[in-house]
Write a structure and sequence with these properties.
Blueprint: H1 2-13, H2 19-31, H3 37-48, E1 57-58, H4 70-78, E2 83-84, H5 87-90, E3 91-92, E4 103-107, E5 114-117, E6 123-126, E7 131-135, E8 143-154, E9 163-167, E10 170-174, E11 178-183, E12 189-196, E13 198-203, E14 206-212, E15 215-220, E16 226-230, E17 243-250, H6 251-262, E18 266-268, E19 277-283, H7 288-299, E20 303-306, E21 309-312
Helix pairs in contact: 1-2
């Protein structure tokens, strides 16, 4: 049990824990005796060392409905329930399809993911090597963000103010729902998957899909081909729970994704295999080597590690 808690704590402090690991860590805290030395030591570590790479300030005045002591410690330690943003620290000049400035910006590095709450209480899980931008006055009459990379959104319902995500020429409009958008600029396609509720997806200002629970649409960045699909239940398990799902992905895009997730460099010697199309899935906790072994079996190749680079040949 102690080894598991130490692992979860390292994941949290390194800003690499999944949502499932995050929930497990704080579930362990809640199960401990209130006055146990182990619980007090763990809470002190969390309070002294907030999650890495977090430029946002935690809101330290507690809502009345929270338990005054135990919940406040968890709130401050997790920095995950109420997050407010500092314009002075985060304002970045930007020219975007949205008519607003200044812009607040949150970014993650390779192998890093993070969780944040927008001023309207919308929850966002930002995946590795991704950026989310939104106006300083977010929520005042409009809710618009710009995403580069991948994020899972659980949008707070607001009848009269739609939530709009811009990813290049693709825009996704919702009122209140949970869904994932994958829109890394180097990938072949942009993908939107709905976990709960309904979203409208547009390309170049033209509506292309209306998605409900368990549906997915992908838009090819080159030929603009649109592909809708009804997903099986297991296919809707998302990355923030440690799932790496690839539905009809070309090999080079899967490898690019693994590079982001594990912060490594992968090279494929045979250029003809880069366009080889694969449908597969991994658990992040299985590790990079397991994922590469599976890919090599599917492509009749093998992998070697040389001078800090994984080479598939």
């Amino acid at each position: 049990m102690e080894e598991r808690i130490q692992y979860l704590l390292r994941q949290y402090l390194d800003n690499t824990c999944t949502k499932q690991e995050f929930d497990e860590l704080f579930a362990c805290l809640e199960q401990m005796d209130d006055h146990s030395p182990q619980r007090e030591q763990l809470l002190q570590v969390l309070l002294d060392q907030p999650s890495a790479q977090t430029p946002f300030r935690a809101y330290k005045r507690l809502p009345a409905w929270l338990m005054p002591i135990a919940a406040s410690v968890l709130l401050l330690a997790g920095a995950a329930a109420w997050v407010y943003f500092s314009p002075k620290e985060n304002t970045q000049p930007a020219t975007k399809p949205l008519a607003f400035q200044p812009v607040l910006k949150k970014s993650t590095q390779r192998s890093e993911s993070t969780y944040l709450v927008l001023p309207d209480s919308t929850q966002v899980w930002l995946n590795a090597a991704s950026t989310l931008e939104f106006p300083e006055n977010f929520g005042e009459g409009k809710r618009e963000v710009v995403l580069k990379g991948e994020a899972y959104f659980d949008v707070k319902h607001a009848d009269k103010i739609p939530f709009i995500i811009y990813t290049g020429k693709v825009s996704t409009v919702v009122l209140g729902t949970a869904f994932n958008i994958k829109a890394y600029p180097d990938l072949e396609k942009i993908t939107v998957m709905v976990k709960r509720g309904k979203v409208k997806v547009s390309y170049d200002n033209q509506a292309v899909a209306m998605l409900t629970k368990g549906q997915q649409v992908s838009i090819n960045n080159t030929d603009h081909a649109i592909r809708e699909k009804k997903l099986r239940e297991e296919e809707t398990n998302t990355w923030q729970d440690g799932n790496l799902n690839y539905d009809e992905y070309i090999m080079q895009d899967i490898l690019a994704d693994l590079e982001r997730v594990y912060n490594v460099q992968i090279k494929m010697e045979d250029p003809t295999l880069r366009q080889f199309r694969i449908s597969t899935a991994f658990k992040r906790e299985q590790g990079l080597e397991t994922a590469l072994e599976i890919l090599c079996k599917l492509t009749d190749t093998h992998v070697k590690f040389e001078k800090g680079i994984y080479i598939i040949q």
